[in-house]
Design goal:
Number of strands of chain A: 7
Radius of gyration of chain B: 13 Å
Strand content of chain A: 25-35%
Order of helices and strands of chain B: EHEHEHEHEH
Distance between the termini of chain B: 9 Å
Radius of gyration of chain A: 15 Å
Structural class of chain A: alpha+beta
Largest sheet of chain A: 7 strands, antiparallel
Helix content of chain A: 40-55%
Shape of chain B: globular
Largest interface: A-B, 29 and 23 residues
Oligomer: heterodimer
Order of helices and strands of chain A: HEEEHHEEEEH
Number of helices of chain B: 5
Number of strands of chain B: 5
Strand order of the largest sheet of chain B: 2-1-3-4-5
Number of helices of chain A: 4
Strand content of chain B: 15-25%
Helix content of chain B: 40-55%
Chain lengths: 154, 128
Amino acid sequence: MKNTLAEVLHRSVSESLENMAFIEARPVNQLSCAEDRELLAVSLLMHEPVTAEFRMLMSRGLLLKITEALFGVPVEELEDSMLKDAFAELLNTIVGQFLNQAYPDTVYRLGLPEEVEPYEGLLEEDSLSCCYQVGEELFQLACCGEIVNQVVSR
Amino acid sequence: MMKRVVIADDSLTARMFVRRCLEIVSNAELDIIEAANGKEALSAVKENPADLLVTDLNMPVMDGQTLLKWIKGNPRLVDLPVLVITSAGNPAKEKELLDMGAFAVMNKPINPSNLKDKIADLLDRETL
Protein backbone atom coordinates (compact mmCIF):
# COMPACT_ATOMS: atom_id res chain seq x y z
CA MET A 1 0.00 0.00 0.00
CA LYS A 2 2.89 2.34 0.61
CA ASN A 3 4.00 1.85 -2.98
CA THR A 4 1.82 4.72 -4.20
CA LEU A 5 3.32 7.10 -1.70
CA ALA A 6 6.82 5.90 -2.55
CA GLU A 7 6.25 6.41 -6.27
CA VAL A 8 5.19 10.02 -5.75
CA LEU A 9 8.22 10.52 -3.52
CA HIS A 10 10.56 9.01 -6.14
CA ARG A 11 9.22 11.35 -8.80
CA SER A 12 9.60 14.38 -6.55
CA VAL A 13 13.20 13.50 -5.66
CA SER A 14 14.17 12.82 -9.23
CA GLU A 15 12.59 15.99 -10.66
CA SER A 16 13.94 18.24 -7.91
CA LEU A 17 17.53 17.07 -8.19
CA GLU A 18 17.48 17.11 -11.94
CA ASN A 19 16.01 20.61 -12.19
CA MET A 20 18.05 22.16 -9.40
CA ALA A 21 21.44 20.55 -9.91
CA PHE A 22 21.28 18.48 -13.12
CA ILE A 23 21.93 15.40 -10.98
CA GLU A 24 20.31 12.03 -11.53
CA ALA A 25 18.98 10.20 -8.47
CA ARG A 26 17.41 6.76 -8.69
CA PRO A 27 15.60 4.79 -6.01
CA VAL A 28 17.36 1.70 -4.71
CA ASN A 29 15.93 -1.23 -2.85
CA GLN A 30 17.44 -0.46 0.54
CA LEU A 31 15.73 0.93 3.63
CA SER A 32 18.60 2.88 5.12
CA CYS A 33 21.96 4.37 4.24
CA ALA A 34 23.06 4.02 7.86
CA GLU A 35 26.41 2.51 6.96
CA ASP A 36 27.60 5.89 5.76
CA ARG A 37 30.05 7.29 8.28
CA GLU A 38 29.30 11.00 8.54
CA LEU A 39 25.60 11.55 8.01
CA LEU A 40 23.91 14.93 8.11
CA ALA A 41 20.16 15.27 8.51
CA VAL A 42 17.56 17.94 7.91
CA SER A 43 13.93 17.81 8.97
CA LEU A 44 10.76 19.55 7.81
CA LEU A 45 7.43 19.40 9.62
CA MET A 46 4.00 19.59 8.05
CA HIS A 47 1.29 21.00 10.31
CA GLU A 48 -1.87 21.07 8.17
CA PRO A 49 -4.05 19.43 6.92
CA VAL A 50 -2.32 16.46 8.54
CA THR A 51 0.85 16.13 10.56
CA ALA A 52 4.03 14.75 9.08
CA GLU A 53 7.76 14.87 9.42
CA PHE A 54 10.03 14.60 6.41
CA ARG A 55 13.67 13.90 7.05
CA MET A 56 16.58 13.63 4.64
CA LEU A 57 19.86 11.97 5.55
CA MET A 58 22.96 12.36 3.45
CA SER A 59 26.72 12.00 3.70
CA ARG A 60 28.75 15.19 3.78
CA GLY A 61 30.55 14.03 0.62
CA LEU A 62 27.34 13.75 -1.38
CA LEU A 63 26.03 17.02 -0.01
CA LEU A 64 29.27 18.71 -1.12
CA LYS A 65 28.79 17.28 -4.61
CA ILE A 66 25.18 18.49 -4.83
CA THR A 67 25.96 21.93 -3.38
CA GLU A 68 28.84 22.34 -5.80
CA ALA A 69 26.42 21.68 -8.67
CA LEU A 70 23.78 24.00 -7.22
CA PHE A 71 26.06 26.97 -6.67
CA GLY A 72 28.39 26.32 -9.56
CA VAL A 73 31.47 26.95 -7.44
CA PRO A 74 34.35 24.57 -6.63
CA VAL A 75 34.11 22.46 -3.45
CA GLU A 76 37.03 24.37 -1.86
CA GLU A 77 34.99 27.57 -1.96
CA LEU A 78 31.88 26.14 -0.34
CA GLU A 79 31.21 27.24 3.21
CA ASP A 80 29.36 25.23 5.84
CA SER A 81 26.48 27.70 5.78
CA MET A 82 26.06 27.09 2.03
CA LEU A 83 25.96 23.33 2.59
CA LYS A 84 23.32 23.61 5.30
CA ASP A 85 21.25 26.05 3.29
CA ALA A 86 21.39 23.89 0.15
CA PHE A 87 20.43 20.81 2.15
CA ALA A 88 17.42 22.59 3.66
CA GLU A 89 16.32 24.04 0.31
CA LEU A 90 16.61 20.66 -1.38
CA LEU A 91 14.34 19.02 1.20
CA ASN A 92 11.95 21.96 1.03
CA THR A 93 11.68 21.64 -2.74
CA ILE A 94 11.28 17.85 -2.73
CA VAL A 95 8.57 18.00 -0.06
CA GLY A 96 6.76 20.78 -1.91
CA GLN A 97 6.78 18.76 -5.13
CA PHE A 98 5.54 15.74 -3.25
CA LEU A 99 2.71 17.57 -1.48
CA ASN A 100 1.58 19.35 -4.62
CA GLN A 101 0.92 15.92 -6.09
CA ALA A 102 -0.50 14.39 -2.92
CA TYR A 103 -2.72 17.39 -2.04
CA PRO A 104 -3.47 19.33 -5.23
CA ASP A 105 -6.75 20.72 -3.90
CA THR A 106 -5.83 21.49 -0.32
CA VAL A 107 -3.83 24.35 1.11
CA TYR A 108 -1.19 22.86 3.39
CA ARG A 109 1.11 24.42 5.95
CA LEU A 110 4.77 23.58 6.45
CA GLY A 111 7.30 24.58 9.07
CA LEU A 112 10.84 25.66 8.30
CA PRO A 113 13.60 23.11 7.60
CA GLU A 114 15.99 22.53 10.49
CA GLU A 115 19.16 20.58 11.05
CA VAL A 116 18.64 17.53 13.30
CA GLU A 117 20.44 14.46 14.54
CA PRO A 118 20.10 11.80 11.82
CA TYR A 119 17.99 9.19 13.60
CA GLU A 120 16.84 10.94 16.77
CA GLY A 121 13.10 10.46 17.22
CA LEU A 122 12.46 9.48 13.62
CA LEU A 123 12.08 5.78 13.30
CA GLU A 124 8.44 5.37 14.18
CA GLU A 125 6.92 2.09 13.13
CA ASP A 126 4.49 3.79 10.81
CA SER A 127 6.97 5.52 8.59
CA LEU A 128 8.09 5.34 5.01
CA SER A 129 11.76 5.30 4.16
CA CYS A 130 13.35 5.34 0.72
CA CYS A 131 16.97 5.34 -0.39
CA TYR A 132 18.32 6.97 -3.52
CA GLN A 133 21.58 6.54 -5.34
CA VAL A 134 23.57 9.40 -6.82
CA GLY A 135 26.72 8.12 -8.49
CA GLU A 136 28.23 5.73 -5.96
CA GLU A 137 26.58 7.31 -2.94
CA LEU A 138 23.24 6.90 -1.21
CA PHE A 139 20.93 9.23 0.60
CA GLN A 140 17.74 8.53 2.50
CA LEU A 141 14.39 10.25 2.66
CA ALA A 142 11.88 9.27 5.33
CA CYS A 143 8.48 10.51 6.33
CA CYS A 144 6.27 9.66 9.24
CA GLY A 145 3.04 10.87 10.82
CA GLU A 146 -0.61 10.94 9.79
CA ILE A 147 0.32 11.59 6.17
CA VAL A 148 1.62 8.07 5.60
CA ASN A 149 -1.78 6.42 6.06
CA GLN A 150 -3.81 9.31 4.68
CA VAL A 151 -2.05 9.62 1.34
CA VAL A 152 -2.04 5.87 0.91
CA SER A 153 -5.80 5.73 1.39
CA ARG A 154 -6.60 8.55 -1.08
CA MET B 1 17.12 51.79 -18.08
CA MET B 2 18.13 49.60 -15.13
CA LYS B 3 15.25 47.74 -13.50
CA ARG B 4 15.13 47.07 -9.79
CA VAL B 5 14.12 43.59 -8.63
CA VAL B 6 13.77 42.48 -5.00
CA ILE B 7 14.13 38.76 -4.21
CA ALA B 8 12.76 37.61 -0.85
CA ASP B 9 13.68 34.13 0.34
CA ASP B 10 15.22 32.87 3.57
CA SER B 11 17.31 30.41 1.58
CA LEU B 12 20.58 31.67 0.15
CA THR B 13 20.45 28.80 -2.34
CA ALA B 14 16.99 29.79 -3.55
CA ARG B 15 17.95 33.48 -3.86
CA MET B 16 21.05 32.57 -5.84
CA PHE B 17 18.99 30.31 -8.10
CA VAL B 18 16.35 32.97 -8.78
CA ARG B 19 19.01 35.64 -9.31
CA ARG B 20 20.79 33.45 -11.84
CA CYS B 21 17.56 32.66 -13.67
CA LEU B 22 16.56 36.33 -13.80
CA GLU B 23 19.97 37.28 -15.16
CA ILE B 24 19.69 34.59 -17.83
CA VAL B 25 16.17 35.41 -19.00
CA SER B 26 16.09 39.19 -18.77
CA ASN B 27 17.38 41.43 -21.52
CA ALA B 28 17.34 44.43 -19.25
CA GLU B 29 20.12 45.40 -16.87
CA LEU B 30 18.94 44.44 -13.38
CA ASP B 31 19.65 45.88 -9.96
CA ILE B 32 18.84 42.86 -7.77
CA ILE B 33 18.29 43.34 -4.05
CA GLU B 34 18.13 40.26 -1.81
CA ALA B 35 16.03 40.01 1.34
CA ALA B 36 15.97 37.10 3.81
CA ASN B 37 12.34 37.55 4.85
CA GLY B 38 9.18 39.49 4.08
CA LYS B 39 9.95 42.30 6.49
CA GLU B 40 13.30 43.02 4.87
CA ALA B 41 11.68 42.91 1.45
CA LEU B 42 8.93 45.30 2.52
CA SER B 43 11.54 47.77 3.80
CA ALA B 44 13.45 47.45 0.52
CA VAL B 45 10.45 48.23 -1.70
CA LYS B 46 9.32 51.08 0.56
CA GLU B 47 12.80 52.60 0.55
CA ASN B 48 13.26 52.55 -3.23
CA PRO B 49 10.62 51.83 -5.86
CA ALA B 50 11.02 48.38 -7.39
CA ASP B 51 9.87 47.05 -10.76
CA LEU B 52 9.34 43.48 -9.61
CA LEU B 53 9.20 41.58 -6.32
CA VAL B 54 9.96 37.87 -6.37
CA THR B 55 9.06 36.19 -3.11
CA ASP B 56 9.03 32.82 -1.43
CA LEU B 57 6.07 31.97 0.82
CA ASN B 58 7.50 30.10 3.74
CA MET B 59 9.89 32.48 5.53
CA PRO B 60 10.60 33.41 9.15
CA VAL B 61 9.75 36.85 10.60
CA MET B 62 7.25 37.72 7.85
CA ASP B 63 6.05 35.13 5.34
CA GLY B 64 5.43 35.81 1.66
CA GLN B 65 1.66 35.79 1.93
CA THR B 66 1.74 38.45 4.64
CA LEU B 67 4.19 40.44 2.53
CA LEU B 68 1.79 40.25 -0.42
CA LYS B 69 -1.05 41.44 1.80
CA TRP B 70 0.99 44.45 3.00
CA ILE B 71 1.96 45.38 -0.55
CA LYS B 72 -1.51 45.10 -2.01
CA GLY B 73 -2.88 47.09 0.93
CA ASN B 74 -0.48 49.99 0.42
CA PRO B 75 -1.60 52.54 -2.21
CA ARG B 76 2.04 53.39 -3.00
CA LEU B 77 2.96 49.75 -3.62
CA VAL B 78 -0.24 48.23 -4.93
CA ASP B 79 0.92 48.26 -8.56
CA LEU B 80 4.19 46.46 -7.84
CA PRO B 81 4.06 43.08 -9.65
CA VAL B 82 4.63 40.24 -7.17
CA LEU B 83 5.83 36.90 -8.49
CA VAL B 84 5.55 34.13 -5.91
CA ILE B 85 8.05 31.29 -6.25
CA THR B 86 7.36 28.58 -3.75
CA SER B 87 7.67 24.90 -3.02
CA ALA B 88 4.18 25.00 -1.47
CA GLY B 89 2.28 26.13 -4.55
CA ASN B 90 -0.45 23.67 -5.44
CA PRO B 91 -3.49 24.83 -7.47
CA ALA B 92 -5.46 25.65 -4.30
CA LYS B 93 -2.70 27.89 -2.97
CA GLU B 94 -2.10 29.43 -6.36
CA LYS B 95 -5.74 30.53 -6.61
CA GLU B 96 -5.59 32.05 -3.13
CA LEU B 97 -2.46 34.04 -4.00
CA LEU B 98 -3.74 35.21 -7.36
CA ASP B 99 -6.96 36.36 -5.69
CA MET B 100 -4.82 38.37 -3.28
CA GLY B 101 -3.17 40.16 -6.19
CA ALA B 102 -0.05 38.12 -6.99
CA PHE B 103 1.06 38.61 -10.57
CA ALA B 104 1.96 34.93 -10.97
CA VAL B 105 2.80 31.86 -8.92
CA MET B 106 5.55 29.41 -9.84
CA ASN B 107 6.61 26.19 -8.19
CA LYS B 108 10.13 25.36 -7.12
CA PRO B 109 12.32 24.21 -8.66
CA ILE B 110 11.82 26.94 -11.21
CA ASN B 111 12.58 26.32 -14.81
CA PRO B 112 14.34 29.31 -16.46
CA SER B 113 12.24 29.02 -19.63
CA ASN B 114 8.99 29.06 -17.60
CA LEU B 115 10.31 32.08 -15.73
CA LYS B 116 11.06 33.74 -19.05
CA ASP B 117 7.44 33.22 -20.11
CA LYS B 118 6.23 34.88 -16.92
CA ILE B 119 8.69 37.74 -17.24
CA ALA B 120 7.71 38.20 -20.89
CA ASP B 121 4.14 38.84 -19.72
CA LEU B 122 5.54 41.44 -17.42
CA LEU B 123 7.67 42.90 -20.20
CA ASP B 124 4.57 44.02 -22.05
CA ARG B 125 3.41 45.99 -19.06
CA GLU B 126 6.63 47.03 -17.42
CA THR B 127 9.32 46.80 -20.12
CA LEU B 128 11.46 44.77 -17.78
